[in-house]
Specification:
This protein is mainly α and 137 residues long. It has a single domain, classed as Globins (Globin-like, Orthogonal Bundle), CATH 1.10.490.10. It is built from six helices and no strands. The protein is globular. The N and C termini lie far apart (31 Å).
Length: 137
C-alpha cells in the first residue's frame, strides 16, 4: 500500500474548511465505536480537539519533510504513552480518522484517497508506537 501525497493534501484541503466540526465528529465516532478508549481522554475534550486539529494540519503541511514529521510523531508518541495510550488503541483511532475524513471529503473520497490515508496513518501510528515503546522502557 502506498500513499499519494498529492491526494493527502487535496483531500485535506476539502476537509479543512470544516475546522473543529471535523474533530468533534472524529471523537464522537471514536467513542461511539470504541468506548474502551474514552477513559484515556479528559471529560472536557475541547482543548484536545484543538490539539488534534493542529496536529493534523502540521502533519499535512510537513508531509514531505520527513525529518520534521518523524520528530513530531516521535514526540506525540512519547507523550501519548503518558496518557495511557497502547499500541492496540491506534487501529481504533485510525478507523475513526478515516471515517471522519471520508465523511467530510464527500464525493472526492475515492479508493485511492483511502489507500493513501491508510498508508500514511500506518506510518503515523507505527512511528508513534515505536517512540512510545522506547520511552516506556
Amino acid at each position: 500500500m502506498t500513499a499519494d501525497l498529492s491526494l493527502i493534501r487535496s483531500s485535506f484541503t476539502l476537509v479543512e474548511p470544516h475546522g473543529t466540526q471535523v474533530t468533534a465528529y472524529f471523537y464522537d465516532h471514536l467513542f461511539a465505536n470504541h468506548p474502551e478508549v474514552r477513559p484515556l481522554f479528559a471529560a472536557h475534550i475541547g482543548e484536545q480537539r484543538d490539539r488534534l486539529w493542529a496536529a493534523l494540519g502540521a502533519l499535512v503541511a510537513n508531509i514531505e519533510n520527513t525529518e520534521t514529521l518523524i520528530g513530531m510523531l516521535q514526540n506525540l508518541g512519547r507523550r501519548h504513552v503518558g496518557y495511557g495510550a497502547l499500541a492496540e488503541h491506534y487501529p481504533a483511532v485510525g478507523a475513526s480518522l478515516i471515517a471522519t475524513l471520508q465523511h467530510y471529503a464527500g464525493d472526492a473520497w475515492t479508493p485511492a484517497v483511502e489507500e493513501s490515508w491508510t498508508a500514511v496513518y500506518g506510518v503515523i501510528s507505527g512511528t508513534m508506537v515505536a517512540a512510545g515503546d522506547a520511552a516506556s522502557h
